[in-house]
Amino acid sequence: MDAIKFVREWVETETAEGEVVLAVSLDISNAFNSIPWRWIMRAMEETFGLPTYLVEIIRKYLEGRTLEWRDSAGAVRSKRLRRGVPKGSVLCPLLWNLAYDRVLRTSLPPPPLHHGLLRRRYLGASGGGRLGRRTGDGQFGHSQDGKSN
After folding, report:
1. Of residues 86 and 75, more confidently modeled
2. Which of 27, 44, 60, 114 has the least CB density, counted as fewest CB within 10 Å?
3. Range 121-137 average pLDDT
4. 53-62, 72-81, 126-135: which range is least confident on average?
5. Which contacts (CB < 8 Å, 24+ apart) does range 29-33 have?
6. pTM, two decimal places
């Protein structure tokens, strides 16, 4: 089943039953420019166990990259790069995914606080209280003991 379709149907079902649905999105500032090459290499070697020759091909592909620009006086300046994935390359998303896989596999709190998305009825950050069903006036019942008001 298509992931977006699954989420949409899940949200529609939960909200139709009066539940609250909360989704969290992660936006990593300057993501493709900031990933250290050592993370990519480590993931290829340790996490995914790729053959040495593939790791070396990618290492050579990344090595020796420089950024050049003209400063305010018009002089050409350059800096050797040690991070970032080449945008426009078909490898860009793959290399980023390899390195960030460990972030995505980070342990989350045990259920029922999550099940991929923040699981229905639970609010992980307010003393463990549980959101209840909507009341007739559009408000939500809430109590610290986890019971809906």
Report:
1. 75
2. 27
3. 42
4. 126-135
5. 31/96, 32/84, 32/85, 32/87, 32/92, 32/96, 33/83, 33/84
6. 0.56
